[in-house]
Amino acid sequence: MSDKIIKPEDEWKNQLSEEAYYVTRKKGTERPFTGKYYYLDDEGIYKCICCGNPLFRSDTKFDAGCGWPSFYEPVSESSVVYEDDLSFGMERKEVKCGKCDAHLGHLFEDGPAPTGLRFCINSVSLDFDIKNPD
Ligand SMILES: [Zn+2]
């Protein structure tokens, strides 16, 4: 459907904050309970900080108590892509932006209904578009 966005590393580096670059392009993780979107409860859409691709809706966000923004469902099936992550001796599913492959977080299968999924996402990988109150 959509073409992948591919940019050289130094272009991402110029475009992003140091922390966003570290998390999205180097598969880093922000410290829990520090992210700016963890406690955010406003209505709107969370987008990829790198390319603006819409990723998660605020009405699928829930408090998993884990310290990172958590969602039970992406905006659409093609919003995100998955990759097996065997680092740190764990078997996890990495969640990446479907458009630019930015590292977003991980997927776990202990989320709430209706999907039973928990997308555990770094705030710093996200940009928030507040819904217009009108
Ligand atoms: Zn992206």
Describe this structure as you would to a colleague.
- The protein has 134 residues and is an alpha+beta fold.
- The protein has one domain: Metal Binding Protein, Guanine Nucleotide Exchange Factor, Chain A (Beta Complex), CATH 2.170.150.
- The protein is built from 2 helices and 9 strands; from the N terminus they run ααβββββββββ.
- The chain has helices at residues 9-15, 18-26; strands spanning 44-48, 54-57, 61-62, 70-71, 80-85, 92-97, 103-108, 118-121, 126-130.
- It has a 6-stranded antiparallel sheet. It has a 3-stranded antiparallel sheet with strand order 2-1-9, with no helix packed on it.
- The longest helix has 9 residues, at 18-26.
- It is globular, with a radius of gyration of 14 Å.
- The mean pLDDT is 95.
- Zinc ion (ZN) binds next to loops.
Taking pLDDT < 50 over at least 5 consecutive residues as the criterion, the unreliable ranges are: none
**Bound molecule kinds, no repeats:** zinc ion
Global morphology: globular
Structural class of the secondary structure composition? alpha+beta
